[in-house]
Write a structure and sequence with these properties.
The chain is α+β, with helices and mostly antiparallel strands. Helix content is 53%, strand content 22%. The longest helix has 74 residues, at 115-188.
Length: 313
């Protein structure tokens, strides 16, 4: 009960007590024992009873308002309840109390007060408010208990989420590590080449310095020893691109990095994990211009190397 409610209840009780004391004083002062005095005493006693009932109603009404206010503070937490039986009981009891209060108010306004009937209603009010107190107490205890349980569940959930996040991070790191390891192993199996060169030849198969007289290109390189790479027959593909980006020659196609590329020329070699010298020739069918020519070498889905060569006109 808040301070304002206490003031209203205690203030109303004090006023009624003063009025009752005043009436008792007047009865004693004016009493002479005659019939008229007896009527006056009975009237004053009825008034006294009415005031006492009004005071009781005021106290109970304020107590009812306090319970309503206390219950309303926790109405938003009804979602924690596994069933709504407490709320249903509360609403039913509250409705009965309001009906009793309304009946008492109508009785007072009708000027036909029946103290005996009102006294019975006051007793019913006291009983209903006692029931309401029990419901509110049980409700608040249940809300508190379930709130604590939910807080514990939230803590457990947060901890579980944190553990899952840690495990997910560890799994992601492990996957990245495995991918790096897989890539390292994959690259270790790749053939390596050295001494990549591009040379132009004329129609007499002799080296030609002027690119506009070239009849073919010779691409030469050495495949290095690699015990990790698989031995056997290997298809080597070369691509020669002009300064304009045009692919020379017209060899077979091959797969690289999820795409299909066209080769300028290709050749099969037998690889036994030892060094192998390789030369592949690319025919020239058009007059070429001076500039930078790019050479790329592929095998087993890997690009083994690339280099640009500047050729003069």
């Amino acid at each position: 009960m808040n301070q304002n409610q206490k003031i209203v209840i205690f203030g109303g009780s004090a006023v009624v007590a003063l009025l009752i004391a005043l009436m008792v004083f007047l009865i004693i002062k004016d009493s002479n024992g005659g019939p008229a005095d007896d009527d006056k005493i009975r009237a004053l006693e009825m008034t006294q009873d009415s005031l006492r009932l009004a005071n009781d109603q005021l106290v109970l009404s304020n107590e009812f308002d306090q319970l309503n206010a206390e219950f309303s503070q926790y109405e938003g937490q009804q979602k924690y309840l596994k069933n709504d039986s407490l709320v249903k009981q509360y609403n039913e009891s509250r409705e009965r109390i309001r009906q009793l209060l309304d009946e008492l108010d109508r009785e007072k306004k009708s000027n036909k007060a029946n103290n005996a009937r009102n006294q019975e209603r006051i007793r019913q009010l006291e009983a209903e408010i006692g029931t309401l107190k029990g419901i509110v107490k049980h409700y608040l205890e249940e809300i508190k208990r379930l709130g604590e349980e939910n807080e514990g569940l939230r803590t457990e959930l947060a901890q579980a989420n944190e553990r899952n996040s840690t495990l997910a991070t560890q799994a992601s790191e492990a996957q990245a590590s495995n991918e790096r390891l897989s890539q390292t192993v994959k690259l270790a199996r790749k053939l390596n080449i050295t001494a990549l060169t591009l040379r132009a030849y004329n129609k007499k198969d002799k080296p030609e310095k002027k690119v506009n007289k070239a009849a073919k290109f010779g691409v030469s390189f050495s495949v290095s020893p690699n015990n990790t790479a698989s031995a056997g027959m290997k298809d080597i593909y070369v691509r020669v691109l002009t300064p304009e980006g045009t692919l020379l020659g017209g060899g077979s196609s091959f797969s690289y990095d999820g795409s299909t590329l066209q080769a300028s020329a290709s050749r099969k070699i037998e690889y036994a994990n030892d060094e192998v010298a390789v030369s592949i020739f690319v025919p020239v069918t058009a007059t070429l211009t001076a500039g930078d020519y790019r050479v790329e070498v592929f095998c087993d889905g890997y690009r083994l190397g690339s280099r640009s060569f500047t050729l003069e006109k």
